[in-house]
Design goal:
308 residues; alpha+beta; Immunoglobulin-like; 5-stranded mixed β-sheet; elongated; disordered C terminus
């Protein structure tokens, strides 16, 4: 009888393993994609730490799930009613009760520890970031302002989107960038999927006890789509922007142009004009490469002006 039960259990384990293997192979995903469990590929150290937390949390959940499923299925399959005889009754089992009380506590403590350390790492702020950007949201647009860089008329370098042009947030790669968030009307949300990070932008963050500042380091050049992730009105779904990460030397060149007047127009270079003038391939394209403007009257008013 014991041999038969053992053989049946081994056969069941083999079938379950084969089904799992076929399921993973049928997805067509690489091992790295499987371990991300659906998360986008990360481009910042902070995003990678969050991806690690997500991966191992899911693995832990799957392990616990398999154990629970096994404990449920084992008596269903191997302890079915075989006669009218009443099986031996066990009222107390102190070691077992200790295990199923202590084990969940250990799991919660371990998950809490790794969650807290990951959150501390993600929200950490350096005193001297390389670049600071003021991110201002308003229906249905974005303004990106650089207080450390001034145009010839003495105002901060800034970019505002239009119906023809996606707002471009240009930052240096491999350097610490600080983002200071605020809103001019309703609550919006600053979200870049490949950063694995979003944060609400509030009209008065200081009045709402919200930390409206965060930092990150983009570890490579590239273009990354950004979105508003908080339902904010008619054109919420179209409130896109693009992050353009340039190498530090390209970013310095970009800012050098933004702080000078364009000889063709007699006014300060716009983001698109400066990138076009740099002529360094797709990353320096004047138009967005990850998303397109939407066909509506995107508000062109200055976010830093009146009209709260």
């Amino acid at each position: 009888m014991g041999l038969k039960v053992g053989t049946r259990a081994a056969r069941l384990a083999k079938i379950s393993g084969l089904v799992g293997l076929v399921g993973v192979a049928a997805t067509g995903c690489s091992a790295e994609e499987v371990l991300r469990f659906g998360w986008p590929q990360s481009v910042t150290p902070q995003a990678e730490r969050m991806r690690d937390l997500w991966t191992w949390s899911v693995v832990a959940a799957l392990v616990v799930g398999v154990i629970v499923w096994a404990l449920i299925l084992w008596p269903v399959v191997f302890h079915r009613k075989k006669s009218e005889e009443m099986p031996r009754q066990t009222q107390y089992n102190v070691p077992l009760e200790f295990i199923y009380t202590a084990l969940p506590l250990v799991i919660v403590v371990v998950l809490f520890y790794f969650t807290a350390t990951t959150q501390t790492f993600v929200l950490d702020k350096e005193k001297e970031p390389s670049t600071t950007v003021d991110v201002v949201s308003f229906k249905w647009n974005w303004e990106f302002s650089y207080p450390g860089y001034k145009t010839p008329d003495g105002n901060p370098v800034r970019t505002v989107g239009t119906s023809q042009e996606i707002p471009l947030l240009v930052v240096p790669a491999n350097e610490v960038v600080r983002y200071q968030l605020s809103s001019k009307d309703v609550i919006h949300s600053f979200f870049v999927p490949q950063w694995h990070f979003k944060r609400d932008t509030l009209p008065r963050p200081e009045k709402n006890s919200q930390d409206n500042v965060f930092q990150n380091t983009i570890d490579r050049e590239g273009s990354f789509v950004g979105r508003c992730a908080e339902l904010c009105g008619t054109y919420h779904s179209m409130m896109n922007f693009e992050v353009r990460a340039l190498s530090p030397d390209k970013f310095r060149n970009y800012m050098d142009l933004r702080t000078r007047n364009n000889p063709q127009t007699g006014r300060a270079y716009t983001a698109a004009e400066a990138l076009t003038a740099m002529n360094c391939g797709e990353l320096c394209a004047g138009q967005a490469v990850t998303t397109k403007p939407f066909d509506t009257n995107r508000t062109v008013r200055e976010a830093s002006g009146n009209g709260r």
